[in-house]
Amino acid sequence: MMEMNLIELVLNPPQNLTITEILVISFILGLMHGATPDEHTWPITFSYAVGKYSTKGGMKAGFLFSLGFTVQRALLTTLGFLGLAEIYNRYNLDGPVYIIVGIVMAIAGSYILKGRYIHLPIDKLLGSEHHDPMAERNELKDPPIKMTIVHGLIAGFGFGAYASIITFVLAPRMPSVLFAPLPGVMFGLGTMTMQIIFGALFANLMKVKKLTEDDIKYVGSKTAGRVLYYGGFTFSLVGLLIVLFPSIDNWAVSTGISIPNLNAIDVGFLLVITVVGVLGVMSMVMSYREVTKTKGRLSKETKA
């Protein structure tokens, strides 16, 4: 009962809160935002964390992504205090944000997989490309970890229930514009805390199987590249559909849970499941099989 009261308090902040209470609630909202499946955070953190294949690398991915996200959230709550965030109430920015996020994801994925920022796999689609597994290893690039900051800045323009609370409920209660960024900063730090934790967990998925460090690096980079590349196309396609048919973004099936990001199966939730759950798992399995297949072939050649 007490837990439900706390959740109710955080999601529906009462009047007459002190500055400290506003900041604490903002931080808790950030924790909840980072802990629940969110299409603006999980796919990016998963991709880069897995690509870094280490606890430290995964934590760094979560930190850098959330750093960009925090900067944007600080700007957002400042706009909320000044009454300039009304654009989020008037227009649905999900479509454009998905498109831009998707493009940046695909560019990063292309760099990891092919060493260049734009690559269309036409040859693969036509079945005319033949891959040498060992050549592919040399072709793979290390995930550009600093791009997570850019991802965070862009993803921060996505708007949901948590952002609504800090922007339209908490930020206007701050005493002056100098304090206005603080709810956004605390929200970002809460999200950052959870993203660092998840980043470490995602990165350690690579250590489940007994592989050499080179194998883990290959599986991690290949998985990251595929998720970013094909996940990016998925994001952009969904964004385009929302721009063309805005009603799609209103589709939702209630789960009966009162916590945002868990309260409904909607477009955002399905994006997380598709990119992290389907693309992520499939890419990891495919990359692992490629490693074992290559090892088996090399073993046979050595014996021969």
Describe the protein's architecture and organization.
The chain is an all-alpha fold and 304 residues long. The chain has one domain (2-303). Helices cover 70% and strands 2% of the residues. The chain has helices spanning 2-11, 19-35, 42-52, 55-82, 87-90, 94-114, 122-125, 133-139, 147-155, 161-170, 181-203, 213-244, 267-303, and strands at 252-254, 264-266. Helix 3 runs antiparallel to helix 4. The termini are far apart. Mean pLDDT is 84; it is low at 122-130. The chain crosses the membrane at residues 62-84, 96-113, 149-172, 184-206, 227-248, 268-288. This is Nickel/cobalt efflux system. InterPro entries: MFS_trans_sf. Keywords: Membrane, Transmembrane, Transmembrane helix.
Note the main attributes of this structure.
304 residues, mainly alpha, 2 strands, globular, transmembrane helix, transmembrane, membrane, MFS_trans_sf
Which helices and strands appear, and what pairs or packs with what?
Blueprint: H1 2-11, H2 19-35, H3 42-52, H4 55-82, H5 87-90, H6 94-114, H7 122-125, H8 133-139, H9 147-155, H10 161-170, H11 181-203, H12 213-244, E1 252-254, E2 264-266, H13 267-303
Antiparallel strand pairs: 1-2
Helix pairs in contact: 2-11, 3-4, 3-11, 3-12, 3-13, 4-9, 4-10, 4-11, 6-9, 6-12, 12-13
